[in-house]
């Protein structure tokens, strides 16, 4: 795809995200997206296939942004504590972002009518991130940096610790949400607990 074509594709994804959030999946039409992004129906179909494909692209782009952040981790961050703290902060910032919360609310509302979209959302977002972390934990175990006999279970524990009640209270706009601004402190504390449970090497333990 040319640079111009990629720019057009990203413009359609950005426009679609805004329209989906404003109107919900069922009420969103491709004409609404085209009106906001410009371009043509033909271009949209060539890039995404249909409305479901466009929605999946929105979720994939959000996930890709986080994975790119993780890939750009400074080279000096190589201990499990450094890697997991970086991952935890980036993940928590993403799931608590306004757009991510809005997309999550949208999927909770729309999944009963469109279960295939719920599955697409899960595959493109949460499952992809979990698989990414699971692979890292397997490597850390094989390298003797941590003791993680079940990397998949450990990844589930990790995300549970990181999200804690932060995501739920933010989704519900509950009182106290405004006090959850220091995501870095929460991420570090959650990583401390995780490393104690999965026995990072002595030099990487909390002192």
Query: Which parts are unreliable, with pLDDT below 50 for 5 consecutive residues or more?
Result: none
**Main sheet?**
none
Label the overall shape.
Answer: elongated
Query: Please, what is the average pLDDT?
Result: 87
Molecular structure report:
The protein is mainly α. It folds into 2 domains: 1-49, Arc Repressor Mutant, subunit A (Orthogonal Bundle); 58-204, Tetracycline Repressor, domain 2 (Orthogonal Bundle). The protein has 11 helices and no strands. The chain has helices at residues 3-27, 30-37, 41-48, 51-71, 80-95, 98-110, 115-124, 126-142, 151-163, 166-171, 183-197. Helix 7 (115-124) runs parallel beside helix 8 (126-142). The chain starts with a helix and ends in a 10-residue tail after the last helix. The relative contact order is 0.11. The mean pLDDT is 87.
What's the arrangement of secondary structure elements?
Layout: H1 3-27, H2 30-37, H3 41-48, H4 51-71, H5 80-95, H6 98-110, H7 115-124, H8 126-142, H9 151-163, H10 166-171, H11 183-197
Helix pairs in contact: 1-2, 1-4, 1-6, 4-5, 4-7, 5-11, 7-8, 8-9, 9-11
């Amino acid at each position: 795809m040319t640079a111009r074509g990629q720019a057009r594709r990203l413009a359609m994804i950005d426009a679609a995200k805004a329209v989906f959030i404003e109107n919900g999946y069922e009420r969103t039409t491709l004409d609404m997206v085209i009106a906001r992004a410009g371009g043509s129906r033909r271009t949209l179909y060539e890039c995404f296939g249909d409305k479901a494909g466009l929605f999946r692209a929105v979720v994939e782009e959000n996930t890709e942004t986080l994975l790119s952040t993780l890939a750009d981790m400074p080279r000096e961050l190589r201990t499990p504590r450094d890697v997991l703290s970086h991952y935890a902060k980036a993940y928590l910032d993403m799931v608590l972002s306004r757009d991510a919360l809005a997309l999550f609310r949208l999927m909770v509302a729309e999944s009963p009518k469109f279960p295939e979209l719920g599955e697409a959302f899960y595959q493109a977002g949460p499952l992809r991130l979990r698989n990414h972390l699971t692979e890292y934990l397997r490597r850390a175990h094989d390298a003797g940096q941590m003791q993680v006999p079940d990397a998949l279970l450990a990844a589930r524990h990790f995300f549970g610790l990181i999200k804690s009640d932060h995501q739920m209270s933010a989704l519900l706009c509950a009182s106290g949400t405004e006090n959850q601004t220091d995501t870095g402190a929460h991420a570090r504390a959650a990583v401390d607990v995780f490393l104690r449970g999965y026995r990072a090497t002595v030099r990487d333990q909390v002192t």
